[in-house]
Amino acid sequence: MEHIYMIICRNYVPIIDMIAKTPAARIIFILLLSAALFGCSSYIPPGKRADFQQLQPIPGFPGSETAARPAAEQLPAAQPTNPFPTGIIMVRLQAPEYTSFYIDRNGGKYGTGKYCVILAKELGENEQYERMAKLPEVADVIGLNRMLLPQRIDDFRSIREAAAQLSAGVVFVYTVDTTFRDANSSKTLTAISLGISPSKKITALTTISALLMDTKTGYIYSAYETTEKEEVSSSSWNTRDNADKARQKTETRAFAKLIDDFIESWPRLLERYPAK
């Protein structure tokens, strides 16, 4: 007897040929086959944010910037240098295991150790850098490249030393945290099946956190955080490309809001820290 084989996630399931001889059976067969084919395709959300509390350096303790000390002990040691006008170095940090669908295909991740640097610009960075560069007392806004970075990144000191090579007085360090949740249950999704349930609603939630730091001392001039979310129907996520575009869209809006906050706070920062 001949068999028809249906592929379900690389496993072969035999279907008796006689089952598909009636119209109703054919319809059921087609529906099952379609569900199986779509079900084999899934989208994996991006990796984790960088934990800035783990990265915070310990100014005033030579050779021990990664030592664990309460934040209150760090504050008196770090002093601002008020390096205005100044260049601003932009650095995106993520957890060491971070990856995304975009980076898997295009690259743009660098470094080992406790953290990695994301060199890929997929959040509209160039446009936002141009906005920042127009601010008073800002000489330039640029991103670090791998030629200036150490291979291993365990703390802020590595980033500050790289920024110092470009004679920039401050470093703007940011990290992205994006999760996908079932809109009905609020359950965080670790994998999203594509095309299975057209009526299912998914919420993309992005939080971006940032610190503006003195290159020389590690003093924190200001901190920022914004959140953006969007609810979409899973029916529009028929491919991984479409799913990842939804992520990029939410992250791009969140990053633009973050820079809005930075631009709004800049005059007050200059007033509080006048050039020495």
Task: Please explain how this structure is put together.
The chain has 276 residues and is α/β, with parallel strands linked by helices. It folds into two domains: 3-39, no CATH class; 42-272, no CATH class. The chain contains seven helices and 13 strands. The protein has helices at residues 23-39, 52-55, 71-74, 101-106, 125-133, 156-164, 240-272, and strands spanning 3-8, 11-16, 42-43, 86-94, 109-110, 112-113, 116-118, 138-143, 152-153, 170-182, 192-193, 201-214, 220-233. Strands 4, 5, 7, 8, 10, 12 and 13 form a seven-stranded mixed sheet that branches. The chain has a two-stranded antiparallel ribbon with strand order 1-2. Strands 3-11 form a two-stranded antiparallel ribbon. A hairpin with a 2-residue loop joins strand 1 and strand 2. It is elongated. Mean pLDDT is 78; it is low at 1-16, 31-40 and 57-75.
